[in-house]
Amino acid sequence: MRRMVAETEVAPRQLILPMFVKEGATEPVAVSSMPGVVQHSRDSLRKAAVEAVQAGVGGIMLFGVPTTKDAVGSGGVDPDGILNAALRDLRGELGDDTVLMSDLCLDEFTDHGHCGVLDDDGRVDNDATLSIYAQMAVAQAEAGAHLLGPSGMMDGQVGVVREALDAAGLIDTGILAYSAKYASAFFGPFREAVESTLTGDRLTYQQDPANVRESLRETALDLREGADLVMVKPALAYLDVIRAVREMSDVPVAAYQVSGEYAMIEAAAAKGWLDRRRAVMETLVSIRRAGADLVLTYWATEAARWLR
Ligand code: PBG
């Protein structure tokens, strides 16, 4: 009877798997703060992506881990950089049946770990960063991404990406905007996953956890600039934000269950302190109940299998 009257459902197609691919790797490399998650080699990425698709996930969000990083994140704009090369691999392997997404941000590619380039005072330079995002967008779309995920929280990033795509004739490539992204401690393990050491903090461009109206304003701007989907991130500590964004947005809303949310449950489960599967599914259904149409989660493949 409970199953019959349940108000919320989680379906495999609503789950998006974030994946990491490491330049030059010949074997998958474990991410110690995210047990079960790896930095893939190009080969193991292809295989794991096929498994995710067979489990029924709706899409894949890809992050690249370059061997060399520099001040301007050159590896991100290079059409042969690791992220773009791996996008090409995956598009070749998966075709058009699975939505392929790419992280459009500089922090994986910069030696200072910021999401943009820095000015002479060491602050992130919003507008100088935008022109790099425009180049990255074209490179990622040409490499085969169906949806680009600008995640750097630069003002105007969605508009600039849309304009660059249209100017290059890439009119079918969509934008999943990280609209409401908080300066969160829950991104901690992600730094290990992309081998990023951050100098300073992200307080000049990511949001204060105390704010919800700010998220509505950020989302409204992204919608006006051409976002096809909007995202709230992290998820579990921001369920009210997901609900608020759901209510004001007429496009699909995604939520990102981030690295720290994953690590928290894995660590407690490893100690036998909570029931792993029940805890994972409870968070996923709660994020859906809050209003997310899609959930990015490192458990996507496994959860999709449980749901079948
Ligand atoms: C930025 C980006 C980050 C994450 C996704 N995209 C890091 C950040 O903004 O600090 C975090 C994802 C996670 O923690 O799982 N490229």
What does this structure look like?
This is Delta-aminolevulinic acid dehydratase. Mg(2+) binds at residue 218. Belongs to the ALAD family. Pathway: Porphyrin-containing compound metabolism; protoporphyrin-IX biosynthesis; coproporphyrinogen-III from 5-aminolevulinate: step 1/4. The chain is an alpha/beta fold and 308 residues long. It has a single domain (7-307), classed as Alpha-Beta Barrel (TIM Barrel). It is built from 12 helices and 10 strands. It has helices at 2-5, 42-55, 74-77, 82-94, 126-143, 157-167, 188-193, 213-225, 239-248, 259-270, 276-290, 300-307, and strands at 15-22, 29-30, 38-40, 59-65, 99-104, 147-150, 174-181, 229-233, 253-256, 294-296. An 8-stranded parallel β-barrel has the order 1-4-5-6-7-8-9-10, surrounded by 8 helices. Bound molecules: ligand PBG. Ligand PBG binds at residues 103, 105, 107-108, 115, 151, 187, 190, 258-259.
